[in-house]
Design brief:
The protein is mostly helical and 323 residues long. Helix content is 75%, strand content 3%.
Amino acid sequence: MACTEKHNLTIWKEFILMGITGPPELQAPLLGLSLTFYLVSVVGNLSLIILTKIASRLQTPMYFFLRHLALTDLGYSTAVGPKMLANFAVDQPTISYTWCATQLTFFSIFITSEIFILSAMAYDRYVAICNPLLYTVIMSHRLCQLLVAIPYLYSILLSLLTIIKIFLSSFSGYNVIRHFYCDSLPLIDLLCSDTHEIRLIILIFSAFNLVSSLLIVLVSYMLILVAVLRMNSAEGRHKAFSTCGSHLTVIVVFSGTLFFMYVQPKSSHSFDTDKIASLFYTLVIPMLNPMIYSLRKNEVKNALYRTCRMFANVLLKIHCRAH
C-alpha cells in the first residue's frame, strides 16, 4: 500500500468494511441465510456446552473436549457474526479501530485453539480404541485440562504477537478493509511499513499450527487403523470407524479451509474467494459441528431427552403449586 497520503489512524478512528457482496439484491437473502446459520450455531453449541456440563453420563474425556470444541466454535463465530449481521442494515459498514483489534484478537484465539483441541480429540480416540483398559487412567481429568489449557495459552500469546505487530505499524490513509470482518491479511494490505516480517510470522505460525496438529491427527489415526484391523469383531470395527468418521470429516473441512486461507501463496489469493471461504468456516462449520459430533450419538440424544423431561417436570410442579 502506497503511503503518499499517510495519515494517523487516530484521526480516522474506524475502518470501512467492504462486506460480503456488492449487488444490493443479494443483501436480503444473505442476511437471512447468515442469521439462520448463526442462530442455529449459537443454540447448538450453547446446548452442547450446557448438556455436557450438567448431564452425569456425559462426564467423560470425549465430551469434555466436545464442550471446549463447542466453546471455541461459539467464540469465533460470535466474534464475527453479530457485527457482520449488523452491517447488512447499513449502506457503508464500518468498524471502530478498537473493536477491529478486539475482534481480530478473539477470533484468532478461538480459531487457533480449535485446531489443537481437534488434535487432542484425535489423541483421545487413539487412547480409547488402542488402550481401552487404561483409558480412564491415561485420560485423567488433569491431563484433559492440560490438553485444553496449553492451546488456549498458546493461542493468546500468538494472537497478541500478531495484533501488536499489526496495530503498532503505520497505516496508510486508505482505511477500506476488503473483507466483512477484521482479518490479518486484509489489514496487512493497509500498512505503510514493510509487511514482509509480519507476513512471514503469519505464514510460519499458520503452517506450524496446521502441520503439527495434522501430524498428531495422522499418527493417532494410523495407530487406530492398525488396532481396528486387528479386531476380530466386525461390530467393533464398525463402531470404531463410525466414532472416528465424524471427527475426520470436521478435521478435513476445517483444516482444508484454513490452509486455503492462510498458507497458500499470496499470488493465488482472491479476496472474493477468501470471503466465501471465511463465511463458510465462521458460520457454517460452527453450525455443523454440534450436529456432526453430537446428534448422531445416542448418549447425547438420551441425555438431551432426560434433561428436557427433567425441566418439564420442574415446570409442571411449579405450575401445579401456583394453582
